[in-house]
Here is the input.
Amino acid sequence: MSRVLTGIQSSGKPHLGNLLGAILPAIELANAQSAPAFLFIADLHALTTIRDPAQLQENTYAVAATWLACGLDPERHVFFRQSDVPEVTELTWYLGCLAPYPMLANAHSFKEKAERLAEVSAGLFTYPVLMAADILLYQADLVPVGKDQKQHLEMTRDLAGAFNRTYGETFKLPEPVFREEVMVLPGIDGRKMSKSYGNTLDVLGDLETLHKRVKRIVTDPTPVEAPKDPQKCIVFQLYSVVAPPEAVEEMRQRYLAGGYGYGQAKEALFEALKTRFAAQREAYLHWSQDRVALEKVLQQGAAKARAEAQKTLSEVRRKVGVRPVAVSFS
Ligand code: ADP
Ligand code: TRP
Here is the structure.
């Protein structure tokens, strides 16, 4: 009985890379266990970059609608918004008091910005501690994440170990689950597909916009008649992760034979994206237009998550020497 847990920051609407690289594999891993998984929207983490409250909420609903559209069953699993469980910020403090400065100063997310220290908030600096609290609060066993999160998982294990050594056995040490088989998908400009590069494909949104974006994918100037190397082409790389294997093989042969233009390949890619995500697009439209329903799902998830969080936190409070929260003064 392994408890799977993962979070996705609400820093924007999820794109094809997030779907294939994170959301769909996490749902698959969650469904393969008999125990309910804990899946959440990390809106407190998103606050390290987003300062516009309306934008934060917009993104949070977009991420929630995406998980549900991708088939997450909120009855079977615990699906919630990080900020609905305030216990996580309290645990962040206890763990933060055990986090050595050099460990945090060594984090990639911090080091990337270390040359412009004035732009580094305390929130960004302690980002890994909040992530450790996310995982330890729910006593997770398996944490599916991208390779970029490896260091954060190591810090989580270190903090759990430090707490257990200081105060006695309390936390399980979680295991990361890396998705070796999923490659890092390229965006329309050939760099890693990422919100921060503005090179994403929004496969759950409007089809006309998607079509335009697909047409903008960068290709080399090889003429139509000439044979082409499929491995070097972004259109082919994307096609190969969304189309059925026979169709991929057929396109590969066409590239090698010549007489097949990138324009034709882009049309085939657009059609494949349209078909592959048709059901999810319809479900996304439904969820994103019904915030009342989304809120209901999130609140139900929060109630389940909080019950679990309070169990861990009351043990933690007792162990560190802080009194239980007074429920009433009467
Ligand atoms: P972004 O780079 O768009 O801001 P995030 O860093 O929020 O995306 O990533 C959320 C999840 O999606 C992570 O688990 C990450 O591994 C996965 N992911 C992001 N971009 C890609 C991509 N281009 N290919 C595969 N997986 C990706
Ligand atoms: N930091 C993760 C990312 O950027 C998101 C995240 C927050 C997370 N808390 C988590 C992932 C806990 C796994 C477990 O992708």
Notes: Strands lie at 5-9, 38-42, 78-81, 142-145, 175-178. Residues 8-9, 11, 17-18, 21-22, 145-146, 148, 182, 184-185, 192-196 surround adenosine-5'-diphosphate (ligand 1) (CB under 6 Å).
